[in-house]
User: What shape does this take?
Amino acid sequence: QVQLVESGGGRVQPGGSLRLSCAASGRTFDIYTMGWFRQAPGKEREFVGEIAWRGGYTTYEDSVKGRFSISRDNTRDMMYLQMNSLTFEDTALYHCYADSGTGHGNRDQRHWGQGIQVTVDS
Assistant: This one.
């Protein structure tokens, strides 16, 4: 069992920055990939990015490439989403997730945080 808690959200002006954190607890020893989705009102859930257990491997949605950066600190069971040059279209509820298991088995699970709001306005 894995529990995830997001923090660091809030309101920010266009062009500003925020850093979201995702803290994992519980059965964290077999987490291999962590990442982020977001969903704005009236829009479909959108993949933001993810990071492998080895932090050098990351994947990003095209709309956030060059602006967002994901990192992780496995010694602290923490993942971060640094968001720069924020625009109105980045306003959404952001959920972090963690994949746990063998990394290639049917018993692998995806765990979700409850989400945290990011609002970009002036």
Notes: DSSP finds no helices and eleven strands in the chain. Residues 58 and 103 are 16 Å apart (CA to CA). The mean pLDDT is 95.
